Amino acid sequence: MNLEQKITEFWTYIKKAKNITLFTHVEPDGDTLGSAVALKHLILLNEKGKNVRISGGDYPRNLMFLSDEEIQLVDQDFFDSSLKIVVDTSTKKRIYDKRVKTEESLKIDHHPFEGKWLFEIGGDFWPATGQLMTKLAMILKLKTDQKVIEALAVAIITDTEFFKERNVNSETFECMKFLMDQGLDYNNLLKKMQLNEAENLFILKAIKNVEVNSLVSYMIVDEEVSNDIARPLVAKFVEQSTTEVSLAFLKRKEGDYRCEIRSKTYFDVSKVANAFGGGGHLNSSGFIQNDLTKLNEILNFINKSK
């Protein structure tokens, strides 16, 4: 089944449902939020009589302009009665709403195919779920509005780190052209996405403490790093890094460390993440560590794998 056929079948599920819940992932980023907001409004604009909600939370402060209401977990009655669609999330453990059963849910995503799903679209060759969602709008010739095009643009921009990340290709820019042809004000959108002064100062302070160990630049942030700034902090760190691999240990409110690992070209950081209980893509992955005791083990693992 080609992409157009898959998208058509995916939309058939939507046409048949009255209530629809969209689910985002833990430690959510612009791709999962933007894709979910865009899909919600694409459904409401193009299909009559639908009730669509997003179930999730902890979204980055600077991206909450995308939603016209606070997003929380949906109530049990709506959950039970709805078609369930998981967005930008490859496995059950990454879904924010733990009630979801993957075998009873649809998935639209850009991670490796994992687990059993009722129906899924995706695969590890899209730079962002937002690009796949934009293709959906283009293929089905769906009506869009300002909410849709801004949400799709945020999804693409943030997950490609402003078009610098993995798998960016001509189709990425064709999708951005489509959004701009639909009325996207790109410069104004960037202004809306800006961090505030305190967030920027926190990031600048954090990236001063970088160490280099052979193939790896690494940093440890022992102040709590909120999900509001985790991705921008890592992006700025990687931008400054001169090594193939960049590794960030970021203290979470739970007291453990969110470990984000990136590579510039050839190194498959997903192998490192998988070895330490996480996962992700070739150039961008993550995992959790309770403390810093395995730091040297992780650094050795990376350097021995080069």
TrEMBL record:
<dbReference type="InterPro" id="IPR001667">
    <property type="entry name" value="DDH_dom"/>
</dbReference>
<feature type="domain" description="DDH">
    <location>
        <begin position="19"/>
        <end position="156"/>
    </location>
</feature>
<dbReference type="InterPro" id="IPR051319">
    <property type="entry name" value="Oligoribo/pAp-PDE_c-di-AMP_PDE"/>
</dbReference>
<feature type="domain" description="DHHA1">
    <location>
        <begin position="215"/>
        <end position="304"/>
    </location>
</feature>
<dbReference type="InterPro" id="IPR038763">
    <property type="entry name" value="DHH_sf"/>
</dbReference>
<protein>
    <submittedName>
        <fullName>DHHA1 domain-containing protein</fullName>
    </submittedName>
</protein>
<dbReference type="Pfam" id="PF01368">
    <property type="entry name" value="DHH"/>
</dbReference>
<dbReference type="Pfam" id="PF02272">
    <property type="entry name" value="DHHA1"/>
</dbReference>
<dbReference type="InterPro" id="IPR003156">
    <property type="entry name" value="DHHA1_dom"/>
</dbReference>
